[in-house]
Specification:
98 residues; alpha+beta; four-stranded antiparallel β-sheet; 3 helices
């Protein structure tokens, strides 16, 4: 298992994010974090997940074929970046708990 981040660009926002996350769920891929950004024309989702390399590429191809997806970029997250992401998530959970 490796950690990957996929950036998905779309012309819609929340309904398409749900559709993309269902693709991860159907393939039983462990999603670590999701970040969403949007402007007036496009939305982007940064999805960090744990998966095998082949499964990650198959998922990328499936997402790129979906309606209203403009593009999907995939890259492997290195250990230091994964550690930083996990620390940020723990910090955000601690802030919410206070």
């Amino acid at each position: 298992m490796e950690q990957f981040e996929m950036t998905v660009y779309s012309s819609e926002h929340i309904t398409l994010l749900t559709k993309v996350l269902m693709m991860f769920s159907r393939r039983r891929v462990d999603v670590v974090s999701v970040k969403s950004e949007s402007n007036r024309k496009t939305s982007s989702y940064h999805i960090t997940f744990n998966s095998g390399k082949d499964e990650a590429f198959k998922l990328q191809k499936q997402i790129q074929k979906a309606v209203d997806i403009l593009d999907a970029k995939l890259h492997r997250v290195d250990f230091e970046e994964a550690k930083r992401i996990n620390i940020q998530q723990e910090y955000q959970l601690a802030i919410k708990a206070v």
